Amino acid sequence: MQIIEQTVGIGIEEGVLWRTSSSSASRHVCVANQPFLNFGTCSYLGLHIRSELMNGAIDAIQRFGTQFSSSRVYSACNLYSELESGLEQMTGRSVAVAASTTLLHMAAIPVLVGDTDLVIIDQFAHASLHMAAELLGNTNVVRIRHSHMQKLELMIQEFADKHERIWYIADGLYSMRGDFAPFDELSVLLDRYPKLHVYLDDAHSTGWYGECGRGAALSRLPNTERVAVALSLAKSFSAAGGALAVATPELKKRIYLFGGTMFFSGPIQPPTLGAAVASVKLHLSRELPILQASLRSKIEYTRRIARQMDVQYIADDPTPIFFLPYDTTRSAVAAARKFWEAGIYVCPVSFPAVPVSMPGIRFCISTLNEAEDIDRLLTTAKLLQQRQVTLRSKQIRNQDRSHDATQNI
């Protein structure tokens, strides 16, 4: 807790964390009454300002009010069935819906994973997955180095005879680094080892990736009963809630019946439920591929200009998430302040969102960004990285001089 207080405290002290916004986040966002070019949004397709979604929310409010105050066990707003039906068309699988992806994991993982199973969870898997894994009681849970498929295979070979099933739990697209799960390697392992099961949180590729926006995991992994994929109805989907795509209606029913947070947490409320229904209709329309292509072109433009400028970032997968590494939390926060001073909104990242040794700056590309905005962002990033290199060189020279002086003594 002390480390979290220190790392987050640096961001608060510099004024780049826990700020309020006074406008809708589109091409520009107003934070602390100051306008910025917006590179902090996870609404990758910009659907949150689409009239269809806003009208869907308004219509739901007019029909049901601001909330539907009942447990779904007793009574549910009929927009739920419309949403689930649309999501099942979108994914080609049975779909259970929860009020958030976190609550979804906490409901589904304890139902899917048995006491005699083994859980292997990626060290960089979203915090909500680690939280859900802590609910598993007697089940063995071990962490594995990020996307280390050779180690995963060795662990499967070692423990297959000792456990009924082996679950690999990870992200489909990692929200900080911007890298995909190693889908090709996972597909091979699923074919090779019948005891392997996979549960992926694909929140950050929902919507902008794949046919009907089903995301990277459902697009690139085999359509097997041993794969469960969580989607986000926020972020690119631009509403609220989480959805789990599973192989059969029976499995969906078990999650609804036995998932604790399905019973004991509130529903998605009418405004965002109405927006979600409108969003799924858009995902099933002919317009979605056009929006996806627009985002892909801006992602490729960002990657190309970054290479030309030699801007250094972690992971080069073609995703809308980019991570600029820094040496310390303080240097990352100071860089965020410099971006802000240049009128560019980016997000400083430190522990506990990333390991203590891996702080940095995250920026996200959306359809709302223009080429000139991206040029300005990357020019600023290059300038700050050059300053970082210069400062590091000075520190090394000073250390060498200090060492030489000591040797002379």
Structure description:
It is built from 14 helices and 13 strands. It is α/β, with parallel strands linked by helices and 409 residues long. The chain has 2 domains: 165 residues, Aspartate Aminotransferase, domain 1; 234 residues, Aspartate Aminotransferase, domain 2 (3-Layer(aba) Sandwich). The strands form 3 sheets. A 7-stranded mixed beta sheet has the order 3-9-8-7-6-4-5, with helices on both faces. The protein has a 3-stranded mixed beta sheet with strand order 1-2-11, with helices on both faces. The longest helix is centred in the C-terminal third of the chain and has 38 residues.
Topology:
Blueprint: H1 2-13, E1 28-31, E2 34-38, H2 51-64, H3 79-91, E3 94-98, H4 101-112, E4 118-122, H5 127-133, E5 140-144, H6 149-159, E6 166-171, H7 183-192, E7 196-201, H8 216-220, E8 227-232, E9 242-246, H9 249-258, H10 260-264, H11 270-283, H12 288-309, E10 321-325, H13 329-341, E11 344-345, E12 347-349, E13 360-364, H14 371-408
